[in-house]
Amino acid sequence: MLLGLTQRDPDEKALSAIEIELHRRLFWSIYVLDRMMASSLGMSPALTDNNVDVPLPGLTLEEFASADRVYYTMILQTSRHVIQLRRLEDRILQRIHLDTASPHTNRPTLLKDIRADIENWYSHGCLISPMEPDNVPIHNSITWLGARYYFLLILLYYPTHFNSSEPIISQTELLRFTQKHLQLTSALFQQNQLPLNKITLFRLFPVGVVILYSFINWGTESMPFPARNEISTLLTILDAFSENWKHAHHAADIYRQFLAIIDAAPDLGALRFPQPFVTTPLEGGQGTNRGGLRSLFTNLLTLMQDALGKSSCYRIPNPAEESVVSSLEMTLVPQEPLFNPMPSNDFPTAYNAGTGGNEVPMVDYEFRSLELDFT
């Protein structure tokens, strides 16, 4: 901000075209990194953009005249698409999670507008994604695009006070978004395209919270909890972090205990807690499961707070601390998604996501002159 990066250079006429373009790329690189960290941590961004007057990056004359113009154009399209992704994440963070002062009288309209922008972002990404399955950059792959799409939907409908009344989607639909996100993330992991870094770890926390929260509120007694395989996927990814990643392995221990509770409770619908589930123990052996869930949820929220920070907006009220958990419950409301980028029963794996069964080399994360993608 002090360097004036958010504004056009007042002496722009005295600068060369390359210098002007590099100024723009520097700002948008900082913007993308800042918004990526903010959405991963669930905190306000450090770089304010209220009065930004910097055009999006473009091609220099040298790049346009180069024999590699097609390559530079593809990188430019991808970078602009990633910038739009970070803008969407920032909008959701600011309007859904961090804005506690404004009245929510227009909540359905706001959610509908943001959802439409998410669908448009995904559709545009499909158009610029190369058709050839080989050597596709990670930010151009359908798998990465789908994973980011479903993460946006998770953030949009995350169980916050903003989404606590008159739910737009059902608890089942939110859980389905989480399942698809983890299935696509698993495909990236199997293709060696999922970096095991802080961003990946931080984003797994709200995803895991939604799964555990959904299990606590699962009210279909005749059906088993459908996300057991996704919990195993989450556990596999967390276990892949090296031993010095303490938060990852503590989270893995929590989900390992969670799996044990699921496997030990055939009648999962009886574990639903529509009221404060710390006051009335269940009858028989299920009381142990209830107490175990309370402990797991407390431990997960505490661990997430330690990893993301006490100010993270992803820390939802703990049923063990709240007098009424139903204030955040999402009533089952049948509703089909506006747009489904992946068939419900056809999720990509390392063998059907365009890899032909061959292992894809580790993605190259070296930042080049026009690449503003990061991760």
Structure, described:
The chain is an all-alpha fold and 375 residues long. The protein has one domain (12-328). Helix content is 51%, strand content 0%. The chain is built from ten helices and no strands. It has helices at residues 17-41, 61-65, 69-98, 107-128, 142-156, 171-190, 198-216, 228-240, 246-264, 286-308. The longest helix is centred in the N-terminal third of the chain and has 30 residues, at 69-98. It is globular, with a radius of gyration of 22 Å. It starts with 16 loop residues before the first helix and ends in a 67-residue tail after the last helix. Keywords: DNA-binding, Metal-binding, Nucleus, Transcription, Transcription regulation, Zinc. This is Putative fungal specific transcription factor domain-containing protein. Its main location: nucleus.
